[in-house]
Amino acid sequence: MKNMVCKIGNAFKELGHAFVHGDIWVKLSAIIMGAGYFGRKQFVRGVLMTVLEVGVIASIAKVFAPYMAKLNTLGTVQREEIFDILTMKKTVNDYDNSLLILLYGIIGILIVVAFIALYIGNMRAVYRLQKMQENGEHINSFKDDIASFKNENFHITLLTLPSLGVILINVIPIIFMICIAFTNYDENHQPPTYLFTWVGIKNFIALFTNSQTITFGYAFVRVLAWTLIWAVVATATTFLGGILLAQFINHEHTHFKGMWRTLFVITIGIPQFVTLLLISKMFGDYGIVNTWCANVGILDFFKNIGLLSQGAQCIPFLSQPGWAHVTIILVNIWVGVPYQMLVATGILMNIPTDQIESAKIDGANKFQTFWKITMPYVLFITGPSLIQSVIQNINNFNVIYLLTSTYQTTNMAMAGSNAKEVDLLVTWLFTLTNDYSNFKMASVIGIVTFVICAALSLLTFSRMIGGDKEEVYR
Predict the structure, then answer these.
(1) Most buried of 29, 142, 285, 326, CB within 10 angstroms?
(2) d(Cα 81, Cα 91) in Å, to the nearest integer?
(3) Burial (Cβ within 10 Å: 0-12, 13-18, ≥19) of residue 204
């Protein structure tokens, strides 16, 4: 942050220096951005910069400025329909749309910021051209600049479109979501019929508040705890299961290795949503698994040992907390272990053989070799992948939603905040937006989820990948 502030300060300092010490063409560039190029007989550049300046200023004035002017209130005129007796038609007043005001206002601000950066860069560029002309240096023509984008500056050519895509698809929606978290945008304030406005940090306070009417604090603690437990357990079980399965299949005494790999890889070939929907039906209260458990006596056995009440008609695999949590983890193991097995197989085939041979000579048994050599090597290689897996499981929408789409909570405090015991932060967020149009609280939860993922990434990357472990495995 300090470096960024210094760079911004230096940029404005250079802008002032260029304007004070520049010639008439540089000074004119402060008004007409192409003037500095016209003065150096670079007419194509001059025309392009002038057209760009006019286009940006016109778009801001005509399109974005009216919305930016209303950003402080997000609109004051609500939509009204008036029935005209003379024409026998309904007319609509010139109303404000808070959603468009916020969206176009954000885009307008980003365009202004980009234009300021371009303006400063242009002034510095035309001043450099002046100095080059005074020193008798060669000034590249427009054709030379175009040619440079095919050669030494080809990286800029390649990154231009992806960068624009990131801004349009990632940056603007993220900024928009963050802004929504500071408004009262919900089902009672839905544009264009109704307006929404700024409420400050009221929504963040509500997320950590618990009362008779506001239960978000109660639900948030439980959903967050389950999200973190799920992320760690799901990652650890599939990771260890994949390594052990790869070890067993690649063992020297295991026969038909290709067949075993094929059988487990089949689960990857089947679309995950098909598998999860089928399992959710099989483990439902009246599914085939419950029917089989009742027929073979497992249901009665669970009643006798106290896991189920005597009046239970089924095993609540996916309909009660606790049972549902365990079932979700077990199903995720079935879905995730084969993929980790393939990853582990490739890593195990590349373990330095000299270390394993040295361990055998020193008298280490197979367990010691696995624990002291194989596991540290696999952890080092898969460190970034493990971090990504934890983050992915925090946002693992498919497994949770598809398995528990019919889950009904009996906890009134959870229901009061539209949450369920089996929800992750991401599924809770989806429910709030898709079913209840509570965009304000969904945005707050999205920000919290991002902060958690970013913090975990920074901590784990710095601890797991840092150091000089590369030297150990060379």
Answers:
(1) 29
(2) 6
(3) middle
Task: State the Cα–Cα distance between residues 230 and 328, nearest whole angstrom.
Answer: 9
CA 65-167-50 angle, 5° bins: 55
- Tell me the one-letter amino acid at 146: I
Is residue 407 a part of any domain in this protein?
A: yes
Please report, for the chain, how many H helices and E strands are present, in that order. 24, 2
Residue span of the structural domain in which 430 resides? 206-283+318-471
Among the candidates 145, 178, 196, a domain finishes at 196
Q: Which residues contact 298 (CB under 8 A, 6 or more apart)?
A: 315
Task: Please tell me whether residues 234 and 266 are part of one structural domain.
Answer: yes
Helix 383-394 with 439-464: angle, nearest 10 deg: 170
For position 423, which CATH number holds?
1.10.3720.10
7 located within any domain: yes
Q: What is the pLDDT of residue 440?
A: 94
Q: 318, 461, 314, 450: which is closest to 383 by C-alpha?
A: 461
Q: Is the pLDDT of residue 52 over 80?
A: yes
Asked if the structure places residue 91 within a domain, the reply is yes
pLDDT at 280 (0 to 100): 92
Structure tokens, 192: 């264009």
Between CA 199 and CA 435, with CA 451 as vertex, the angle to 5 degrees is 60
Residue 321 confidence (pLDDT): 92
Candidates 268, 311, 245, 317; CA nearest to 288 is 317
Tell me: do 220 and 126 sit in the same domain.
no
Whether residue 352 is preceded by a cis peptide bond, meaning omega within 30 degrees of 0, is no
Which tokens is 459 given?
């901590």
| Residue 434 CB contacts under 8 Å (≥ 6 apart), including other chains | none
Tell me which range, 35-44, 236-245, 343-352, 440-449, is most confidently predicted by mean pLDDT: 440-449
